[in-house]
Amino acid sequence: MCGICGIINREIGHEVDPHALKRMCDAIVHRGPDDEGFHVAGQAGLGMRRLAIIDVRGGRQPIYNEDGSLVIVFNGEIYNHLDLRRDLESRGHCFRTQADTETVLHAFEEYGVECPNHLNGMFAFAVWDRKRHRLFMARDRIGKKPLYYALEAERLVFASEIKSILTLPDIPREVDTVALDHFLTFEYIPAPLSIFRQIRKLPQAHWLLYEEGQLQIQRYWRLHYHASCRRESDLADEMVTLLRDAVKIRLMSEVPLGAFLSGGLDSSSVVAMMAQTSSNGVKTFSIGFDNASYNELPYARTIARQFNTEHYEEIITPDVLRLTEKIIHQLDEPFGDFSVFPTYMVSEMARKQVTVVLSGDGGDELIAGYETYIAERMARTYQRLPAWLRRGLIGPVVSLLPPTEKKKGFFNKSRRFIEGCRLPAHLQHVRWMIFLQQAEKQKLYSPALRAQLSSHNPYAFIEEAFAACNSDVALDQQEYVDIMTYLCDDILVKVDRMSMAVSLEARAPFLDHRFVEFCATLPPHLRLQGKRTKHLLKQAMRGILPQQILERRKEGFSIPIKNWMKQELKPLLMQHLSAAALHDTGFFEPNYVKRLIAEHGKGVENHSHRLWALLMFQMWHQQYMKK
User: Fold this and answer.
1) Does residue 2 have an active-site annotation?
2) What is the arrangement of strands in the sheet containing 200-201, beginning at the earlier edge strand?
3) Yes or no: is domain 232-368+473-551 CATH 3.40.50.620?
4) 40-44, 543-547, 603-607: which range is least confident on average?
C-alpha cells in the first residue's frame, strides 16, 4: 500500500524538478511512512511513499523492467500476483523482487492496456514508457484506490490525493461550482469531478494514456447483470465458497492483520470466514456510542465471543469533533458522510495493533442491503393512492411530525419517506439519498451561484448510470447505480482516506470482482425478498452466524450528530456559518442558513445533513482556499 505521484512534461527536453516531486511525496507521507522512492529522468518524474506489507525488504519502488525501458509506481494489493507471476515467467519475463508491484509491471509489458483485466485486487498505478515517452495509468474495477490528475498545456500531474497536486504552486485553486452543487445534493462529489476545477479523478475501471500532450481515457470493465436459473441452495453454497476465498487471499500479509467489526451481517460474515481460514487468530475492532439507538457494540461482542477473537472497542463522544479540521485535511474535498468520524476512530484504534484490516464494505450495494431499495418498492404502492390523499392529507400530516433524537424510528423514517416521494420517480431509490432539493437551493444559493448553475442538472450523472446498466430490472439498475456512484465516491473514499490517515490498509473481500460479478447473476428475489434484505447471504450464513445477527435490521454506521448540533456542536456552527463567514465565501444566503440553524435548534426540523454539509464546505474553504 502506497501513495503515488508524478509529473510528466509534454516536451522531452523539459526536465522535471526533483524538489517539486519530493514535496508531492511529503504531502502523502501518511500513506506510506516506511519508505520513499523516485524516478526523475528528463521529462518524467515518478514518486511514491511506501507502506510495506508484501516483500517488506525487497519491494522498494519505483521498479523497472529488464531493460529499464518501463518504470512503475503502484498503490494497492494484487491478490493473484503469484499465479500471474508464474504465467509471466513462463512467457520469459525475469523478476528481481517478490513484490506484486513488479508483477503488475511485467503484466503491462506483456498485455499493454489490457493489463488491468488480468489483475485481482485494489490498485492505482502509473507506468512510464521511457522509449515511447508515454504514461499509462489505471484504477481498479470498483474504485478502492484513488487517483487524481491535472492536465495542463505543458504537463500532466497526478497523485493519490489532491493535497499532493496542490503542493505545486501554479495549480489554480478554483471551486468547481458543479462539483459543489453535487456535494450539497448528495454529500459527495462524483467522478470525474473534484471540488477543484482543474483537478479530476480517474473514474473506477478506467485507464488513462498520456502521449504528446494528448489524453485518452477508456473504460476496461463493466458490470453485467444476467439472472441465473440455478437452485437457491447451490447459489448459497457458491456464495460462501467465493466469500471464503476472497477473505483467504486477503489474509496475504507479512505484517499484523485484523478486521473491522460493526456487528452487522457483512462484517460478521467476514470475521466468520477469517476464523475459518486464518491459523493465527483474529483481532477485531469496534466503535460504539452512549446513545443506545446508535450503539451496536452488543452485537459486535456476540460475534467476537462466538469466534473467539481478540476484541478491542471504544466509545465515541462529542469530543471526537475536535478531529474535524484534521479529517477535512485528510479528505481534501468537502465530504458530508457523518460516518467519517467513527471510521477514523476505529482505524486509529486498529492501527495500534495491526497494519492491515478487512472490512465488510460492499455487501449493501451487491445484495440489496439498503432501506432505500425497500422504500422504492413501497413508493410504487404509495403512488397508487389518490393524489388528494397523498398531497392533501398524508404528506401534510407526516410533515407535522416532530423529528426525534433516535437514530431512525417511525417518525423520522416516515418524514424521510414522504420527502423522497416528492422527488422525480425516475430517480428510483436515489430519491432517498438526496439531501438538498431544488426548491431549497433557490433559497440557499447566492444569486451568483444560482446563475452559474442555471443550466446544470444535478441528477445527470445518476441518470447516466441508470442508462448504462444492461438490465431493465429495477433492482439491478438500483444496485448498479450505487456501485458506480455512491459506493465508489462516498463509501470507499471514506474508508481509504480515514484508514490511510493512520497508515492502515483496509481490504474489502465483498468487493473481489469475482464476488461482485457473481452477485450480478442472482435473481432479484434472492437479494431482496419482500422487506427482507440480503436474503441469499442470510441463507448462506445460516448455521455459521447467530440467528440474532442474521435477522437484525440494518442500522448503518452513523453518529448522533443531529443531537450534538443542538449543544456541543453549536459554537462550531455559529462560528463557521455566521453571516460574516458566509459573506466571505460568497456562495450562500446568510439569512436562510440562520433559519436552518434556528429550526434545527428548536427541534421543529432535522436539518443535520444540510447544516453539516455547509459546515464542511465552509471549513474546507477556510483550510484550502485561504492558503
Assistant:
1) yes
2) 35-41, 44-50, 2-9, 155-159, 148-151, 200-201
3) yes
4) 603-607
